[in-house]
Predict the structure.
Amino acid sequence: MKPEERILESPNKHKDFVVSGSLVSIRDRQSKLATQAEAASKAEGKVLTAGEILTIEEVAAKSIDGLDMAKTLSAMGDIGPEARLFIYRPNGKLARHEVFADPRVCVDIHRGAVIENLTEKPKDVSGWRTHEFFIDTKGCLGDECGRCAIVCPENAIHLRGKGKGSFHEIDPLACKGCYICWVECVRTAADCILVDGKTFDPVMRAKHFGE
Amino acid sequence: MATVLSGNAAAAWGFRLSRVQCYPYYPITPSTGCSQQISRWVNDGAMDALTINAESEHSAASQIIAAGKSVRAGTATSSKGLLYMIEVLENAAGAGVPAGIFLGNRATGAPINIWADNTDAYAMRDSGAIQLFASDAQSALDGVIQGYRIAEDIKVRLPFSVNLRGFTGTHAYEGVEIPDQKAVDSLLPSYVPLYSLFAPGKPVTYGAMLSAYPYRRHKRNQMEVLRQATAVAQKVGKEFGKTFGRAYGLFEWIGDPKADLVIALMGESASPGEVVVRHLQGREGIPGVALLKIRLFSPFPAREIAEALAKAKTKAVVVLDEGLQHGAVFPPLAQRLTTAVHLHLEGKGPRIASVIGGLGGSEVRQEHFQLMFALADNIAAGKPVRTEPYWLDIDEDPIFCESEAQVSPKLLKKWGEVWRRHERKEKYFAPIPADTHEIRIYSRAGQGAITSAVGFTGAGILSGHQLLTVPAFGSERRGAIITTDTLINLNKDKKVRSFNRAWNAVVLYDDTILYSPEHQVLDGLKEGGLLLVNTANLTTKKIRQILNASESRVRVFTVNANEIAHRIGLKHINMTMLGAFHKAYQEIPFDVAQTYYEKNVPRPRDASMEAIRQGFAQTTDQVTIKPKKESRLVTTQEFLDWRPDDHGMESWPSAVEEYQHG
């Protein structure tokens, strides 16, 4: 008897991964690829609800369904400024809550030294670079290319605008002056990325490309 | 009613009742049983969890950390496996990931030793995890549930481990109350992650690189968080007691609340100590004695212990460490306790001596506690004390020196003065009356002695007694002689988990064991005790002759279990021997036992029950039994009949030929 076949979920556009028994074989894609929207909605369902930790100011500023606000605030007031409210609201419904004193001494460091990436203040690394880098908007292909933004290790290059007339811009606080964008730019001939205002420097080019 | 479980299975129940969602594991003796049990439950659908067969302990630990950020995760390990995990565990502690580990404590090589001591747990003591020590299967089960509650508390969020002594804890079978799932759920709500996994709106980085300034600030926080665990553990232990009637503290003070002499220790070895404390308490000329059984080792409840010692006005503490890391000259528990007393009592605390014992599977017996209390008495009297640890059961380095010729001359030079001034007070060494019955089974590995002893344990518990079965593990192979010990507690008020090593009954599953030069089966058998032998052709008289026990008051019983098992069609004789044992030893009523066996014997149940009944019926202590023709299982007979001459080596098919013929 032939074992039942099952197709593995995969983002690969060209191939299907077929499992039959303990054997996995690869064939050209026949099954419909889930659209990005579908994949996103699936992923959305899998995101776990996390607990929230609020300070007394944050609690005072909002009302939380199913919580005795007066009692909570007075309990937090008893503890003082290090009072925190822990709440857990899966599907928007309050399931757990607890008032506790924050055990941390240094409150600028998150529990477990976890870094919340989007709330981190960018660091000014402009002092690291010895040359100034600038993208000439006239030469930049904008959203048609984006190579420099992809290769930038500091995520310092951002796309501005949309479609025709869009261009890339270097964040002068985040650029360390590593030359990678300059080396990787496909538009060397059009002199897209300027270094110290110079369009094309044979000496520098020789240094970086060994020419 | 209590269920018969091994320590490993009890820990597995702890994980199951805690609704652990991810359980990666890499099995290692002696904690394998826990992972095996969980793996089976997950396979059967009894437990909704993801088990992962990790490629190493390092991976298993990494996986519980990765999983522990979002779901409840746990694993079990021992010895070197734990050492391999420690590298990762520090990440769990630093990043505040609450994951659980059950540890069957075992020595760490070299030299290789698979038996119990706390060395592995000691190696982990600085990895930032909460360490709880369980003293029996029940407290291991309760410890895992409480461990998750403590570890996941919003003030704590740290990994934890529950420690149980290898083999005498993990492989000992005893009655365990399995808590109700609903009650556990109310005590231990579901896991709440602090950050969503892969949440697009709020990406986070765990374990990022921090430079000196934020790093030291993080460490300051981490220490404060670890400190919180002490208070939380105390609170959770109390709440657990309210729900289940078994309250736990940071430590347990057993004995006189105003004890002058205290032995501090952790874990399972406290059970012989409890017997000794009960025995010594209130005896003439002996000051108050107590055991300080420490449950929370990390974070060490230094202030609480120091306060307890100050409150009791204790004069001397002997600290028993059942493990010694390879780099230690003063063991960890003694170190922590000394520091606690020094820091919190400022020189007004008790005097402290360190004792090392129970290493690599060494048993800590009742007489050791008598020795240690006698030592504590000397120290309390102001006699000099060794600043380096004492040792248990080292002839060249005894606690009390009775003959100077025996001890190491090196040590005599160094500690001779201390030895000479110490006095071994005989009042501490009064023999301890046993209120237990103890049974030893000698069998050959593979005969099923453990199965029958565990069955007997269940039957005993059903008839209202407390029983404990501890099989010996380690150097056996199929056919080797092994022992399985069962303890029946006749004192219904107090739990006993320590053997006196005076047997009321000795059972031989194979009469050839009578001839084994290594096993003197009558050794330790009490006067008037009973000896049950599975034999086809030996009479009780002959057995007495072989053992040189013709005049002894030992009652000898025989049964031809091979023949009965063969006739019924069973491969093992263990069920027949179980029935036979009930005939010889009547403390556990056979009719009650049968109701237990009907539901619990191995399949096929009818045949097993028949074997039990026939074993019971055909056991005799009469001398005049007519020797029957020897009846052996067919496979045994073939094995015995085989002679090298019968088969020339050339007539054996070679591996190549076998392969060619398919």
